[in-house]
Design brief:
Elements: H1 9-12, E1 21-23, H2 29-40, H3 45-56, E2 64-66, E3 73-76, E4 86-89, E5 91-92, E6 95-96, E7 103-108, E8 114-118, E9 124-128, E10 132-137, E11 143-153, E12 161-166, H4 169-180, E13 184-189, E14 197-202, E15 205-208, H5 214-232, E16 233-243, H6 248-260, E17 264-271, E18 285-292, H7 295-300, E19 307-308, H8 312-325, H9 330-342, H10 351-354, E20 358-359, E21 366-371, H11 406-414, E22 418-419, E23 429-433, E24 439-440, E25 445-447, H12 451-461, H13 472-482, E26 488-491, H14 498-510, E27 515-520, H15 526-534, H16 542-545, H17 549-563, E28 579-588, H18 590-594, H19 599-609, H20 621-626, E29 628-630, E30 636-639, H21 645-654, E31 661-664, H22 669-676, E32 684-687, H23 688-695
Parallel strand pairs: 12-27, 12-28, 13-16, 13-26, 17-25, 26-27, 30-31, 31-32
Antiparallel strand pairs: 1-2, 3-10, 4-7, 4-10, 5-6, 7-8, 8-9, 11-28, 14-15, 16-18, 17-18, 19-24, 20-21, 21-23, 22-23, 29-30
Helix pairs in contact: 2-3, 4-5, 4-19, 5-6, 8-9, 13-14, 14-17
């Protein structure tokens, strides 16, 4: 079946159902031994092997045990059914069929109206081609391409291009293994929360609360993708996973298994608001699980995440303004400053900033004098410290002085870091300055109104098209904290495009050169899917695809953010200086790759592998005549005719360029090696069809 599941041990034994996902301790040795004896009595070798494999997976000290559902696949309604295609029977008696097995097309009849299909067991069946849809089963050999749909160039030519991909994210991740293995600084994902409200699909079916295997299906779905995502991270890379209560505990265990328990960093809690209609407790929190690719390496390199105190610049600027307005009168300026700080909302400036509520005499610097000068725990030294006005010894803290000698204490006094009282009876306090304590460690719990994101998206698009988008400001905060300003940031559950918008706005804010790579499918809500199917529209039809999340939400949102103009022509903003390109993931056949007919679908992949800067190199009439082409303001050159290697090398030597990757179009290893000798060592040379085809053979089933 298209949604066929792996064999359940209890079902095979006739004992009913195991829970779909449970945490277990390992069976005792004698129990395992008994199971092995029972296995030996099973005459069917296939059943015995399947059961043995499932039982073997239980021999673990801890973790999740769940049904690994298979096969998982994707339907490709726009692809032509050909001899050799893998297909599903998508329509039976005029009605959608979501329970089809996978078939291979053995042959087409002469008028190509019907096809002879063969299933995995060799059974044959004849079906009308109109009722068939090309499909890909996960694990099949897959040759991906990236077909450019459109692009916007408002940023500097040398600035990275934010890359937005419409496609199935499992296959997109496989494609990114070719372009970005070990290159991604931060991955943020907001996967389906699996609430039971049909909020995601597995094998073309919406999964709801009635599905007894919804948790194990979700875990199977996530495990495959996390395993690939791990390979894309740099050794210092970080993964952030947003999740809700329904799967939080399971995702934590799954991530411990895939990424390593020792790489866990934090369970961030986002309190999004109070639910006063809750019967028991207002469960308004979402979570972000944070894992490092290699936590030990981060510690070894002394990586410390710090963020600017919220409201810092605003408060410092106001302090300076009031200081000047008061004619450098510290007392007058401090009164006004305290009044202004008290009126500031907490979300504008945090208490860690507003407690610096005094302006220093002579400098106007905001400071706080609440530091205890006593020895922690008591037992500190006791010596006289003279009051600067009365010249009498001040009161000594009960635990003695914090500083070991009078000389050390005098250093602090001379540096202006001790605040004395009006006379010697008050114990002095230590001073700290706001402009010297400008950063802090982030707390793992924070408040942010979740409705703000929906309002912001409504303002961008001009209407409501997407439920529960993530907050761009929230994501910006964590990206700024955890990734460098030149980071590659990947989101393969791209949804409405919040991650890409956050990266674009961060670059505008701090002149960074971050690059967003975002993958989203063109899935519809269940309500829209049902409505369109009733109206006679099917996946692949223009009317159906137009309401998918990529075409209806993600693409118009990001186009509006960058250009400042909405789809209807109305003005949203002045736009932002950024480059962005939209691609569609394509599925190619080996013959069209080797013959070069599919080059322009591969051009996006080669461009992305070289860093995604400048323009893609496509096979135009001019490039075909020259035998080569060079990316405008980019890093990619392509040698279409190996015999023209010397001419291309001469052109590169004679011009200033930033070419870092040269792709040679040939399936001949000897031709590729000879052509490569003409280029300097600073350029990475790759024989396209040999290396590209080999890269995706790893998925071939044995």
């Amino acid at each position: 079946m298209f949604s066929r599941m792996s064999l359940n041990i209890a079902e095979a034994a006739g004992a009913g159902h195991l829970p779909a996902a449970v945490t277990v301790t390992p069976p005792r040795a004698e129990t395992t031994s008994s199971l092995e004896r029972y296995l030996a009595e099973i005459s069917d070798p296939i059943l015995r092997e399947n059961l043995s494999r499932e039982i073997g997976s239980l021999k673990r000290e801890f973790g999740l045990v769940f049904e690994r559902h298979h096969p998982e696949g994707i339907r490709l309604p726009k692809h032509t059914v050909k001899r050799g295609s893998k297909v599903v029977v998508s329509t039976v008696n005029g009605k959608p069929n979501k329970d089809s097995e996978f078939y291979r097309v053995h042959r087409l009849n002469r008028d190509e109206s019907t096809a002879l299909l063969v299933d995995a067991e060799g059974n044959e069946a004849i079906h009308p081609i109109a009722n068939l849809t090309v499909a890909k089963e996960f694990g099949d050999v897959m040759y991906p391409g990236l077909r450019k749909l459109s692009e916007i160039r408002r940023g500097a030519p040398e600035a990275p291009v934010h890359t937005i991909i419409n496609g199935e994210n499992y296959h997109a991740l496989e494609a990114l293994q070719y372009t970005h293995t070990g290159k991604v600084d931060l991955i943020y994902i907001d996967p389906p929360y699996n609430t039971g409200n049909a909020d995601w699909k597995y094998n073309d079916r919406y999964v709801d609360a009635k599905d007894g295997y919804r948790h194990s299906k979700w875990l199977s779905f996530m495990e495959k993708r996390l395993a690939i995502a791990k390979t894309l991270l740099k050794p210092t890379g970080v993964l952030i996973m947003a999740i809700g209560d329904d799967e939080h505990h399971r995702l934590r265990l799954l991530a411990d298994d895939v990424l390593g328990e020792g790489n866990f960093i934090s369970n961030i809690v986002w309190q999004g608001g109070r639910k006063n209609d809750s019967r028991f407790i207002s469960n308004g929190a979402d979570y972000m699980l944070v894992y490092a690719r290699n936590r030990e390496l981060l510690v070894e390199r002394d990586v410390r995440w710090r963020e600017a105190k919220q409201g810092l610049d605003l408060v410092l600027n106001e302090a300076e303004r009031l200081w000047e307005e008061a004619g450098h009168n510290a007392a007058e300026a401090s009164v006004k400053f305290k009044r202004w700080l008290r009126a500031l909302p907490r979300e504008v400036a945090m208490p860690g900033v507003t407690r610096y509520d005094q302006l220093e005499e002579g400098t106007g610097r905001p400071f706080n004098a609440d530091k205890d000068m006593g020895w922690p725990g008591g037992g500190g030294p006791r010596f006289d410290v003279l009051h600067p006005i009365t010249q009498k010894p001040v009161s000594v803290p009960t635990g003695g002085w914090r500083f070991t000698t009078p000389a050390r204490m005098q250093e602090e006094i001379d540096a202006g870091r001790v605040q004395f009282g009006p006379d010697e009876r008050k114990i002095p306090r230590g001073k700290s300055y706001l402009d010297e304590i400008d950063s802090q460690v982030a707390m793992s719990v924070f408040d942010a109104d979740r409705t703000a994101a929906s309002k912001a998206l409504f303002n961008i698009l001009g209407d409501k098209r997407f439920p529960f988008p993530k907050d761009q400001l929230v994501l910006s905060r964590w990206f700024r904290l955890m990734a460098p300003t030149d980071a590659v940031i990947l989101d393969f559950f791209g949804g409405s495009g919040t991650t890409a918008e956050a990266v674009i706005r961060l670059n505008a804010e701090d002149s960074g050169s971050r690059q967003a790579i975002l993958v989203t499918n063109n899935e519809l809500s269940k309500a829209d899917d049902t409505k369109l199917r009733k109206a006679g529209h099917q996946p692949g039809d223009d009317e159906y695809e137009a309401l998918g999340v990529f075409h209806h939400v993600t693409k118009p949102r990001l186009e509006t953010v960058v250009t400042g103009v909405r789809e209807d022509g109305s003005k949203y903003s002045d736009g932002l200086d950024a480059n962005i390109a939209f691609f569609e993931l394509t599925y190619l056949d080996e013959p069209e790759i080797v013959t070069g007919r599919a080059f322009n679908d591969l051009a996006g992949l080669f461009w992305l592998k070289a860093g995604g800067i400048g323009g893609t190199v496509e096979l135009t009439a001019g490039a075909k005549a020259d035998g080569f082409a060079i990316s405008a303001s980019g890093r990619t050159a392509v040698l279409f005719t190996p015999g023209r290697a010397q001419a291309l090398a001469g052109k590169l030597a004679a011009t200033e360029h930033a070419i870092s990757h040269l792709f040679i179009v040939t399936d001949s290893e000897a031709q590729g090696d000879e052509a490569a000798t003409h280029f300097p060592g600073g350029i990475t040379v790759e024989r396209i069809y040999g290396n590209y085809l080999e890269a995706f053979q790893v998925n071939r089933k044995d």
